[in-house]
Amino acid sequence: MGIEMLLEFEHVTGIKKQRWKQRENFCLQDISFTLEVGYIMGLAGENGAGKTTLIDYIMNPQQRYQGAIRIQGEDIRINHVNMRNKVGLVSEENHFLEDMTIGQNEAILGRLYDNWDGECFRDMLKKMGLTLGKTVGKLSRGECMKFQMAFAAAHHPVLYLLDEATAGMDPVFRIDFFKILQEIIATEEASVIMTSHIQEEIDRKMDFIGIMEQGSLIQFREAGEIKYADRA
Amino acid sequence: MQIELKQEQKIEQFFEEYYRVKKWDKQSNDIVAGIFIMIQILLMVLPVHTLWEEENRWILLTSIGTLSFCAPLFYMASYRLVKEGQQNVQMLSQKIKYLPVDMRALKKWRIRLLLQWVEKSFLACMLIQLLFSLIIIHKISWMNVVYVSIVAFVIPMLSNGLLIWLEK
User: Fold this and answer.
1) Which residues of A touch B95 (CB under 8 A)?
2) Above 0.90 for ipTM, yes or no?
3) Distance (Å) from the C-alpha of residue A170 to the closest C-alpha of chain B?
């Protein structure tokens, strides 16, 4: 049996669309890489390099591009709704109902997933030190990331997209966070793409590192072969 | 087709749950609209009743004046209520854009909300005013009926259109 490719980017180049009096859209430039099951890929680069845009290309069905993005061998454009069942997103942008509690968010938003696991969600919340009664809008940035991580894990995705997930977390919990992440990858056969600005985190915690610059992936290697810190 | 139906059910359940948790009673919309309709009927019935006994044009004019004042108010109130619902949908569609939901199903839901507005405010008001005009036909001249129709239909429609345009 061959190696199972979880995520494939094949010459992905964004199609620019410019509306009247609007700025030209930022696009990805000929991105190609593959990610196998069970690995963490770190995406590094300066602000505006295209890290979040790369995540948006996976998540947003309205993004127009040439080339192909495949998850478990299937082009994500074929059934984007089902694809979102396979992906867990932890993002800087809060996509939750901020005036409601964690429990209410679970009741309302969790039902949209085909394989929502309430028990897993509560277990994860416990590990993250959060309770169902907390209002999402009142969570600190670190707590919000933890909540999002628990929410992402509760529908058992095969691919985790973590956009600056550890930013705002206290250093002690950050160690635990990576332990939890490793545990998930081992038990669920999932992979992770993670953007980060923390050099030490990128160099030590990732299996693969991709460095982005102006929408292009200028380097993509195994973590041992490349040090983001040296490059900076 | 099966998948599409499942998605629409998903959206429906999602909104039901959202309104349940939010404790936003969908019926309150109907109650407010109902109160406005009742006020309008009262305002219409009273002058018509007086007209029945003796033909006083100034009463009719008062009635038209009240009606033209009341109708835009009614439109405005019902429009705002539905707009609140629309805004909820808009906000929620932003929140769920990365969740496994078919946005086409969500668009259908928005169209349904819009139809609710047409159905509840526009149509109901139109019918009541039509009834009012029909009652008056027996008592006054055709010219007055045309006048009543213009005041009762055109002015509220224009004011409502203006309101929507201003809101945009």
Assistant:
1) 95-97, 109
2) no
3) 27
